[in-house]
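Request from the bench team (R.T.):
"We need a structural guess for the complex before ordering more zinc ion. Sequence and SMILES attached. Just send the C-alpha cells back."

Command: build protein-zinc ion structure.
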Amino acid sequence: METKPKLKLYEKLTSALYFLHYDVTSQVLSFFIHKSCVENLEKLAEGNNLLEIYKNKYFPEQTSYTSYLKTVHGFNDCGKVEGIFGNFLKISFKLLPLYTFTEEICSECKGTGKHNVFDLNCNQCHGTKKELVFNREPLLAITNTISLLLALLDCYIAIYESDSSFEEKYTESLYVIRTITERDMNGHAMGGSMSGFFKKAIEDYFNHSVSAGKSYKSISGESVCCEQVEKDMEQTYKMLMANPFATKSDLHSITALVRDGGFFYLETNGTNGCNFYTSNQGMNTYWYKGKDKGLPISCHNVDGPLQQIILLIGLARLSEDIILS
Ligand SMILES: [Zn+2]
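Reply to R.T.: structure attached below.
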C-alpha cells in the first residue's frame, strides 16, 4: 500500500501569522512568517527604530544587523533567509554549541576525563579530556534576533488587528509569543497566548492519546508525554552543551507533555524549575484579551539563551507533532 507523504507544517497551516519549526537532524530552528506581513514588518523595523533600540540596548557595539529581505538576517548575520515556502517567508538559524573543543588537555581533570572524587565524568570536559572554551554570543545573537522578530510581529498585530480582514487572514495561528534577551537572572523570560485553534488541536490530541491508552496519571492530573519532542530537546541540549555523554539523569528535567483542556507543559534544565507552559494566568496578550477561547502562555526561571532555545524548540516540535498528527 502506498503511504501518503506527510505534509509539512507550512503546507498544512496556510493561514497562520507565524510559527516556529525545528529540524533536529540539521539543528536548524526556523521562523515561518506569513508573506502578507513581511513588507509591513520591514517598515515597522525602520519606522520605529526598533533595530537600533535592540542593537544598542541588548548587544555590543561591534554587532551588526542585517535586514531580513537580504540573504542573511539578524544580529551577527546569524540567520539565513531561505525564501518563500507556501505562504511563508522562511528564516533559519543554525544552532551552534555554547562550548568549542580545543586541542589543549582539560585543566580540571588533566586529561583523565574523570571526576577527581566520584566515579563520574569530569564536570568540566564531560569526559572528552579536552579543554572547552565557552562562548554564548552566537546563541545570544539568535535569541536577540528572535526577540526582535517577535516584537515586530507584536507591533504588527497591535496596529492591524482591528482591520476587518485580519482574523480571516490568520485563522490558523497557533500562538503569539514574546521573548526577552537580557544578560541577567530571568533574562530570557517569555510568554504570550495560545489560540483557540491550537487549544482545540491539543484537546483532540490529548483525548485521542487517552483513548489509545497513552496517558498516565500525575500529581497535576492526567498527562500525555510527547516522547519524540523530549528526545529532540535532549539531543539538542547535549549538542549545545558539547556534552555527548550526558545521561538520562543529567537531562532528567527535560519534559514535554499535554494535559486536558489544551494545556501544554515544557521544561528544561535550570534552577528551581525552568519551564514554559499554558496556564490560567499570564500576560494580557492577544487571544487572552478575549479574542476567542485561547489560553495565556507563561514561563518560570528562564535565565539564559540555552534554556530559551530549548523551550522554543519544545514549542516548535510539540505544535508540529500535534497539528500534523
Ligand atoms: Zn576534564
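Two things stood out. The helical segments are 9-12, 35-47, 50-58, 137-160, 166-169, 196-211, 227-240, 305-323. The CA atoms of residues 114 and 120 lie 6 Å apart.
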